[in-house]
Structures are given as structure tokens and as C-alpha cells.
Amino acid sequence: MGQTMRAAVMHRVGEPMRIETVARPTARATDVVVQVKACGMVPNLANVLANWSTWYPHHPLPRLPAVFGLDPAGIVCEVGEQVIGIAPGDRVYVSPARSCGACPACLGGERTRCNHYTFNGYFGFQKNSQTIYDLYPHGGFCEYMAAPQYAVVKIADTMSFNDATRLGYMGTAYSAMKKAGPLPGKSMLINGASGTLGISATLLGLATGVTRIFAVARNRSLLERVRALAPGRIEVFSSEDGSVADWVRSRTEGQGADFMLDTLGAVASLAAFDDAMHGVRRGGRIINIGGTAGHLPVDLKWLMDEQMQLIGSVWFNGAEGYELVELIRSGAVDLTILEHQVAGLDDINRAISGIASRNGGFSNYVIAP
Ligand SMILES: [Zn+2]
To answer: Is 351 helix (H, G, I), strand (E, B) or coil?
Structure first.
């Protein structure tokens, strides 16, 4: 292991990343260093970053130049002197979730509520995030990255690194679904079922005892692929064919689904969210994990009278990461449906500029440094 490494460095949004030789991180105190074998990539990342300040002005990107890469997996190669539960050679997923570790939220196991909460290798949630980027400057688009030990989830021997890069999307869907309460016997409406989060939620619904899945998206051929995952439990509807709420109610004797996940992307309309959430039954839960931004008009009287709960959910915690690894290891969640689209570091600019595949969330985009 040399003192330097190759990294894809972004100097300016809108310009190609440059492959550079930079200093390799070392493991301090409670940190580990991971040799990155695969790193998940947000589909069409270059376009997302180009539109960032318009779509999400309150989410700061790291100060440039920076090394991006949200969902890395690899092998621990060095541990800090205070690390006792993780050893070199461990195969791991590295969650990008970073927080201060010392505030009441962090101490309560709710790192997502920390006011330093930051996605390493992607974006921050408030101005404090640059403090985190200064401590952890590398995402997964490089050969080695340092990470705090709390960010590491050990993966099963049988899990490929490519599959492990999907844990970010899987975990986001999983943590959101757990916020709906006990899942066995429940019905779930997924708004955006053919995308990366939607496919993840579908697989998890099948694994956790959700008995009816109402899968909504636009593309009919992708919806058919979703339905084929479990034709007896999954019903599909194209949002181009009318009101989602009307359709779900027509399938549930007028009641609606027990809960809904919204996974729509940044360019989706708030009207689509508004329509779908009225397909949730009285007393149900509406959980947002999508990218739709803006002010949603909500009838407060409806919210009260129907005892509805509108919930925002961001990412997942490390314990949920371990639960996912076990769900996948056992075969309860079957990731063999994923089609990995792998590019090397030298091909990264082509990879991040690629238009989203026609395979929707069945595709999994990976950079292999
Ligand atoms: Zn904190």
C-alpha cells in the first residue's frame, strides 16, 4: 500500500472530473481506511449536480475540489489505534452518513437528526457539513477512503461488492417502511415503483410480509417487470392512466392502502404526490423519501379528521444496515434481479453523464476504482 492513490477529483461542477494522484488517507483514532472495490453512483449524476443549486439550494455541496462517491464498498486495510471491533480484511459497506457523534441526537442513535448530518461524497444538510468534509474529504470515487468506524457495516462473505453498493437505496427504503409500523399483512402504495428506491422497496415489501403492493410508475413495460416479481401480491398502475388515488381505492373497496412511500425524482410534480397520498386509508402513513421539492398544499382538516401521518425519512442507521445484510444473505431479499453497470475510474465521466437506463431501478450503477 503506497502513500498515494488515484482519485476522480471534481474541480468545477459542469466540468469533467480529473483523475489525479493524491495522498492516501491514513486511519486516525476511531477511523478505518477502506480499499474501495465498488462505489454506487446516483444515476445521471453529472446532470443532478449541474441542476443542484436550482433543485436543492439549501443542501450545500462540498467545497471544490472534492472527491464524490456516495455508496462505497470494499475491504478494510487499516484501522485506527482505538478501533477494536473492525479488523483489516473485513469486507464492508461504508455508509456516507456522517454526524458529530456527541450531541443528544447522535447519542440517542438518531444520527440523521444531528445538526452536522452530512452525506460524505455527495452533499450536506446544512452549513456545518463542510466541517465534516474537512475531516472526511474522500467519497468512494477513489482507491482508498477513511471513514469513522460507526459508518461501517460488515457484509456477508456471499455478498458481492456490486450488490453492497445498493445498500444506500435499500436502506433508505427499509428505514422508511419501518416508520409505517409492523409490516406483515399490510398494503403498501409505492409512488415511483420502477425507480431505484421503488424496486428496493418492492423487494423489501415482499421480504417483510407486506401482502399487497400497489406499484405506480409511468413506464408500462417496467411496471410489468415489477409485477412479475410476485404477480399474486403486486398490482401495477401507470400514472398516465388517471388518478392514483382513485385506482388504489378501487382495488381496496374504497379504503386505500395502509401506507405509501413516495420515491419520485426531483422533476416530479407535487400534484403527483398530492394525488397519490389520497390513496392512503384513514389512519394511514405517507412517507416521503423522494426528491420532489416544494410546498405541498395539505388540507389540515383532512389530516386531522382522517388521522393521517405525513412523515419525512432520510437514510437509515447502521443497525438497519446490518438487518439488510442479513435479509440479503438469507435470500429473503433477492438482489439477483439487479443488472450492474460497472465502469472503471478512467471511464467515470462517461458513466456519470449517461442518461438513465431504460431498465429503471433494475439497473445498478457502479464505479470500480
Ligand atoms: Zn450529533
So the answer is: helix
Burial class (CB in 10 A: 0-12, 13-18, 19+), 231: exposed
Spacing, Cα 181 to ligand 1 middle (Å):
26
CA of 98 to the centre of ligand 1 (A): 9
pTM greater than 0.90 (yes/no): yes
Contacts of 262 (CB under 8 A, 6+ apart): 191, 192, 273, 276, 277, 286, 287, 288, 289, 290, 292
Query: What is the band of 355 on the pLDDT scale with cuts at 50, 70, 90?
Result: low
In three-state secondary structure terms, 286 is strand
Cell, residue 314:
432520510
Ligand 1 centroid–CA 224 distance in Å is 43
Is pLDDT of 75 > 90?
yes
Residue 343 binned pLDDT confidence (cut-offs 50, 70, 90): very high
Contact 173, 339 (CB under 8 A): no
CA of 153 to the centre of ligand 1 (A): 19
Q: Is the dihedral of CA 29, 93, 159, 230 positive or negative?
A: positive
Using a pLDDT cut of 70, give the percent of the chain over it: 99
Instruction: Determine the distance separating the centroid of ligand 1 and the alpha carbon of 95, expressed in angstroms.
Output: 16
| pLDDT one-digit tens code per residue, 29-58 | 999 999 999 999 987 888 888 888 888 888
Q: How far is the CA of 106 from the centre of ligand 1 (A)?
A: 4
Q: Is 79 helix (H, G, I), strand (E, B) or coil?
A: strand
Tell me, what's the pLDDT at 266?
A: 82
CA of 151 to the centre of ligand 1 (A): 14
Using DSSP's 3-state secondary structure scheme, residue 361 falls into helix
Ligand 1 centroid to Cα of residue 114, in Å, is: 4
User: Measured in angstroms, how far is the CA atom of residue 189 from the centroid of ligand 1?
Assistant: 33
**Arithmetic mean of pLDDT, 93-117:** 96
